Structure prediction request, 432 residues.
Amino acid sequence: MSGPQGDPAGQPGGGPGSLADRQAALVKALTSGQPVPNGFDGFRVEAARAALLRKRAGEVARQWPMLAAGFGARWKPEFAEWAAARPTQGSLRDGWDLARDLRARHALPAVAAAELAEREAAWRYDGDSAPRPRRGPAVRSAAGAVVVQFAGRVRVLRRP
Amino acid sequence: MNAGYGVGIGWRPEIAGFVAGLPGLRFAEVVAESVHAHGDLPAGLPELLARGVAVVPHGVRLSLGGAEPVDPARVDHLAAVAERLGAPLVSEHIAFVRAGGVEAGHLLPLPRTREAVDAVVANVKRTQAALSVPIALEPIAALFDWPDDELDEAGFLTEILTRTEALLLLDIANVYANARNRGADPLALLDRLPLDRVAYVHVAGGAEHQGLYHDTHTDAVPRAVLDLVTELCARHRPPALMLERDGDYPPAAELRSELDAIATAAGCPAIT
Prediction:
């Protein structure tokens, strides 16, 4: 722990036990399932971790309404389980990554298929950086939905 | 902010139509990161500005309490949005939201240490250097504290405000939540804060889970929070107060009655 002597004024951070290290350890505990750092109230940090996952679930539901709707009342626990050890990349990408995971496991709800296919057709997303609009036309399918995009316009050809 | 803004509301796209229909509205707040520095303004905001409603950009991602220096691109964005909106001031939190390259996804509390005060003060000064308007700093609601606090909350906040000469954005629901979760008296905190530096006040709802009060912004404003508004105004009337609602939006009639309840508790004219 860093005591009152700490680091020189105006230059906090750097070095073991520094504010930077301790903040990083706390964020890891809250986002990656790492142990709660020594001295913290474990029950309260766990309550904050759960609240954070509920908040993220709500934000992803706003970006991916059909994905959330596909799980109904199970959405928040489903998302929380998936996201517990995955720090947020922003709600657009979080929902996208989850939808792709579900598709790979053949577990994407049918009602959410067109939503994923539409985005895959309109945007290029490599899974590591911010999605970019596609320049050329594209046809994409997901869980039985088929979507075509031409000149930025997206049409669903088939729904599951 | 000028005296007389009265009761306002946090503008969100989902309730843009409701906000546009408030006849007495004179001020609103918008999440700074949701506004493009150069592209189109979110639909509905230009109409509010044309009516003369003051719109304050409220940052949520600067991470002023981070040990690392604040990201200059984020600071520039906040400054550009303030200029686009012609805002009288901007606001941000006394909190950190990322560390070690990982986003927390939420506002996290700082240890109340001198090292943390130094970090916040340095970042606020970096931000102020880019801004052409004042910044108001908002203390957050924290479900947990750090194990090695050296200062109490009033001492910590006063030190930061004094050294930065920043204004205070007092979230009365956060005062309530922290006091309730720590078993402390919220009035004792109000009595020690520099209330003459309050630029405006947040009022929001919350709910209890497993014995802890969560400042959710998705539940109704409890009576106890409205009573604290009255206590605050009896000590020092802030220039403005506003309702913060961030989801699970109720019917318009319910939102109107929440705004009216804040106005009543503060002794301000209704804006509905």
